[in-house]
């Protein structure tokens, strides 16, 4: 999912958007190396080295990956959306805020005009 997440973060630059990751890898040193290699530029929290760590326990997460898309008030609006479905969810929330969603990284300006 990293390539899509990277493109989403880039596309949403300057918009009211934040991508947060939760990681359960046991070895934090190796985790940091992997994050650097994968160019993870967004905030990623460590879950104590376990899938039953404090974050997954608090959010009742039992499967990996679990994806939540929250609106500007912190309400979970979408769960387990990936790829285009995630883009659509984010675009919908932006539109609800009166903000024009930016063009997808893989979509031309003509494609955006055609959607209107």
Structure in words:
By secondary structure, this protein is an alpha+beta fold. Helices cover 40% and strands 11% of the residues. A two-stranded parallel sheet has the order 1-2. α2 (28-37) links the parallel β1 and β2 (44-46). The longest helix is centred in the last third of the chain and has 14 residues, at 83-96. The model is unreliable at 107-116 (pLDDT under 50).
List the helices and strands and how they pair.
Elements: H1 2-11, E1 21-23, H2 28-37, E2 44-46, H3 54-58, E3 68-70, E4 76-79, H4 83-96, H5 109-115
CATH fold assignment: Glutaredoxin
Total of helices? 5
Could you give me the name of the CATH homologous superfamily?
Glutaredoxin
Averaged pLDDT, please?
89
As a whole number of angstroms, the C-alpha radius of gyration is 16 Å
β-sheet strand percentage: 5-15%
The CATH C-level class name = Alpha Beta
Helix-strand string: HEHEHEEHH
- The CATH architecture can be named as 3-Layer(aba) Sandwich
**Content-based structural category:** alpha+beta
Describe the sheet with the most strands. Answer: 2 strands, parallel
């Amino acid at each position: 999912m990293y390539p899509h997440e990277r493109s989403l973060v880039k596309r949403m630059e300057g918009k009211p958007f934040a991508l947060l990751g939760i990681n359960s890898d046991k070895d934090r040193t190796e985790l940091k190396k992997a994050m650097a290699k994968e160019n993870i530029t967004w905030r990623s929290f460590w879950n104590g080295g376990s899938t039953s760590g404090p974050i997954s326990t608090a959010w009742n997460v039992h499967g990996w990956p679990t994806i939540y898309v929250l609106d500007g008030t912190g309400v979970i609006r979408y769960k387990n959306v990936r790829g285009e479905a995630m883009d659509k969810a984010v675009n919908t929330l932006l539109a609800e805020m009166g903000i024009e969603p930016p063009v997808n990284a893989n979509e031309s300006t003509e494609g955006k005009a055609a959607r209107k």
